[in-house]
Task: structure prediction
Amino acid sequence: MSNTSVVILAAGEGKRMKSALPKVLHPCCGRPLIDYILQSAAALTADIVVVVGHGASLVKEQLGNQWRYALQEEQLGTGHAVLQAMPLLPQDGRLLVLCGDTPLIDHQILKQLAAVDDDRAAATVATTSVTNPAGYGRIIRDSCGLIDRIVEEKDATVAEKEICEINCGTYSFDLKQLRHYLPLLSNNNAQREYYLTDLVAMMRVDGLSVNALVIDDHRKGLGINDRIQLAEAAALIRSEIMFRLMQDGVTIEDPASTWIDSGVEIGHDTVIRPNCIFESGTVIGASCSIGPGVHLKRAVVGNRVSVSYSVIEDCVVKDDAKLKPFTVITPVC
Result:
């Protein structure tokens, strides 16, 4: 989409992950978390800036030099993070601000987010509703039903904490308005941080409109804050992977016991029996019988292959091969 830029926030430590690995690099179905939102954003525009901070060198090494980076040396909040990226952005147009830990926000949602804006809107906020909003910023609407402000969990009153509509941490801004308001942010809050969410109230006070994009499926809008949520997101992504494969002519007898990573390719009329694991880099041909109990890791399997109760890693299996059960093929160390 022309005249649209993207900033992806990837500077946080992710303390609730309790890990030495930066949160955005935690694997999810064979890919780093941040890779999903990067792919969705890249389908919209080539003008993308990744804000790095904690573990910056690891993040840049993993993602490579195809992206531009801004460094947030001190993690002083989301508003401060976006401020670090501003010198790399155009003077006007639309800016989508996204989080690196939201793997389920896809290209279609981003297209809707950019399209929802009109000439009078200073910003658009993606929201969703959940039964348990604890930990998330709450959406405060005025008497007309318009977004009035966003209040963070630690600053919310008891009544505000009862609100179930939450902020997804995904925004679209008019860049000219953002350049005006961003330096005006204050850190007068419980976290002593510069909240990007405070811009909503500032804009509304000055008579500017703030739109909302309501994500109906709340699961797509949620970020990953701990390993429990990481597992939940991975289960959803695996389900989508298997749904697409079955639509393309693959039989998966028991999806509940089958783990297939992102990027795995499987030919039509192949049957996947229970308790199989296929890791990224695996390619399986057509008319195969795989499983039960097969683990494939970066394996290339030909057409009409039959294998069960086996482990195959970094290997090519030729067409029409019939492997005996309990075959183990792994690289020689």
In short: Helices lie at 33-42, 56-63, 78-85, 107-115, 175-181, 198-205, 218-221, 227-247.
